[in-house]
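_Full entry_
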Amino acid sequence: MIHQRTKDLIFNGIRIITKMLRPYYSIKFHSSDNLCLHLGCGKNILEDFINIDGNPLRKHILFYDIRNKFPFKDNSVQYVYTSNVMEHFFSDEVPIIFKNVFQCMKRGGILRIVVPDLEKSINAYVNHEPDFFTDYPRPYKSMGGRFSNFIFCDSQHRITYDFSLMQELLTDAGFALSNIKKMDYGVSDLPSEIFHNIKPFEEHHANMNLYVEVKR
């Protein structure tokens, strides 16, 4: 595993490079409408989505750092999906990302966010449920170690979320509080043909995650 200090140096360089690419992307997507964005896609490529990732070696993606202003025009994005990504940003970066999403989304568009669930992990720790946690990234046997894996992930995680924090951040970004919903696993207000393709990505450690949807 690459140490997080090294990753931070790489990501800072990626942020600068992709910021320089923004004018090109803005021209490319100038006439695009009803876009679907998959933020931080990694290896999980969604059909009919613009799959965005900061890894230039991945194929079939838009190479971009989402901490930069999005290269999409206002009112042009219908659906946004991001899974196990937002916990990797610093607490001062997340509001910027959410505001950028809000700005480019269409009225009635849906943002679906999946992140590790702080509340579930605390309950598992307090109730001494070691099987809730995994051996990744380190094979700790102690509850403290397994809980630390979940929260910090060898310093890869910078912020933890429960539903109340997600509500706060999304409302600060401009979304209406009444439009923010905590979802059960496997349940979504996204069109069924879209969620059918997304659902397999959420099967891994499904019980550990928080599922939130908000309508623009």
About this structure: The longest strand covers residues 105-116. The helical segments are 4-28, 94-104, 118-126, 143-152, 163-173, 192-198.
